[in-house]
Give the backbone structure.
Amino acid sequence: MNENLIKREILAKVGGDPIWPVQYAFADLIGNSLKFIKAKELALQAAKGGSSVLLMGESGTGKEMFAHAIHGASARSAFPFVPVDCSAIPRELFEAELFGYTAGAFTNAAKEGKSGKCELAKGGTIFLDELAEIPMGMQVKLLRVLQDRRVVRVGGVAPIPVAFAIIAATNLDLESMVAQGLFRRDLMYRLDVIRIEIPSLCERLEDIPPLVEYHWKQKSRELEKPVKLSADALRKLEEYTWPGNVRELVNIVERLLVSASKSVVEPQDLPAFLTKAPTGRLLPFPSFHLRTILQEVERQTLERALRQSRGNRSKAAHLVGLSRASFYRKLKLHGLTDIEGKEEILRRLP
């Protein structure tokens, strides 16, 4: 057992509270699309520092996986990683859950009191998932804790020093919530030091095959079912729009393996909603305006050509049937000129 694991075992027994193990690393963040690469690169930079991180993205895009990976690659990896699902905590218990409580603080309270999540995360990382669900009154108290690095348990008077990194995640538009008076602007600024926007699966369609392959192998080993997926079945999965993002993809992979009765899964073995999906991929267009749609198609085509050519612009220009000069102009038009370091980024990622 290495030194970090020994330290984790010791911490796991402190105060009788469990330690939450890191379940995902950067190697588990599968994808080579430009947007996803940039998100991973920023996450890796965040892991090297101690600044607050705000993960933005639709449900199922892998925000919690990013949080685990950031903590696991940080200098705090030997200390606790404490996830908090803010949507699952009753409003009246929020303060006790985050800050803890003293003996006899309220009816049915443990006689010896209890540490809150902030105390448990001391030296490590606290992950606030579903951040937008924090009640407004608690937002004020959380902001004070982040500023002072001290907590006062419910029913207590003595401040307890705490030092932890914080990662928050939401699938909602915080700026819009601030404008509506539903979220504190000062708390948003405190948490939004490093913002990482994780693209939805329909924004990185080229990542579907490697994602399916990775999770298929993993689930196949777990279930001890050496079943294969046919090329035709994989094409059907590529044509699906995946509204549930990576989480839905992982669930479908497990479903197919569990229900498989043959050595190879074919298109006819897929659920009906997958086989009835339109053959043309539906792209995430921001509007019905034809010019906007055409621009989005062009931008995505340029990105995919760059990916296929591994960043070689001459090859990418040839793939899309443009001269090198015209291709450069298109890149500049769509804001895709900052890719020179992409291969270096790929090499640096774990």
Summary: The longest helix spans residues 290-308. The CA atoms of residues 145 and 190 lie 11 Å apart. The chain has three domains: 3-199, 202-275, 290-348. Confidence is low (pLDDT under 50) at residues 1-18, 277-282.
